[in-house]
């Protein structure tokens, strides 16, 4: 089976090269350079991610700041190269771990760049790719949708349904779409996800 995370990583790197470092993304406040730095840190510097999460810790916070500055200052081609090829010691170099860690990450961020561009268009995914994303959505739905006050039912024809939301309002919202689109919706890209919504 093809490693969908690897495929999305390559496609995202190619797109980053085309758009350049200052293009918009769907991640609020982030340009493509900010997104690339995030991905490089995630793949190769978990210690820096901890420092970003806890900047008040002197050593970790300062290390995170310096590392992020040095990555941000890299020439664009070198930074994209680091997105495309994680370091040898990265778990992303191991196919099964890469699939588990990065399938959703790289799909969502690829779409964050694609769908922020004015000329973006739908792209069909293979059935196996949709199946991978559906499996991830089934695992993540409760967490991703936990803050919604309504009851939510996400239906992907041919794949199944998942439920989420708090259900406090008595309203049941039904979302229908491909697994990829429902996943984007659940990850907060609601105004760009191709889903049909109804209330029951």
Automatic annotation (TrEMBL):
InterPro entries linked: CHP03085, DinB/YfiT-like, Maleyloyr_isom
Superkingdom field: Bacteria
Chain segments annotated as transmembrane: none
Alphabetical list of NCBIfam families matching this protein: maleylpyruvate isomerase family mycothiol-dependent enzyme, TIGR03085 family metal-binding protein
Designated name of the protein: TIGR03085 family protein
Organism (species): Kocuria flava
């Amino acid at each position: 089976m093809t490693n969908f995370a690897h495929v999305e990583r390559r496609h995202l790197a190619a797109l980053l090269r085309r758009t350049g470092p200052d293009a918009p993304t769907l991640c609020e406040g982030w340009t493509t350079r900010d997104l690339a730095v995030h991905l490089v840190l995630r793949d190769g510097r978990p210690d820096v991610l901890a420092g970003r999460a806890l900047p008040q810790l002197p050593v970790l916070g300062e290390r995170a700041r310096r590392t992020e500055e040095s990555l941000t200052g890299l020439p664009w081609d070198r930074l994209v190269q680091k997105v495309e090829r994680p370091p040898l010691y990265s778990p992303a170099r191991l196919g099964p771990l890469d699939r588990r860690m990065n399938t959703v990450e790289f799909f969502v961020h690829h779409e964050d760049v694609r769908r922020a561009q004015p000329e973006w268009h739908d792209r069909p995914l293979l059935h196996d790719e949709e199946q991978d994303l559906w499996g991830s959505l089934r695992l993540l739905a409760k967490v991703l949708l936990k803050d919604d006050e309504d009851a939510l039912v996400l239906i992907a024809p041919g794949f199944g349904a998942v439920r989420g939301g708090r259900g406090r309002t008595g309203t049941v919202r039904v979302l229908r779409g491909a697994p990829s689109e429902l996943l984007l919706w659940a990850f907060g890209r609601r105004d760009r996800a191709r889903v049909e919504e109804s209330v029951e």
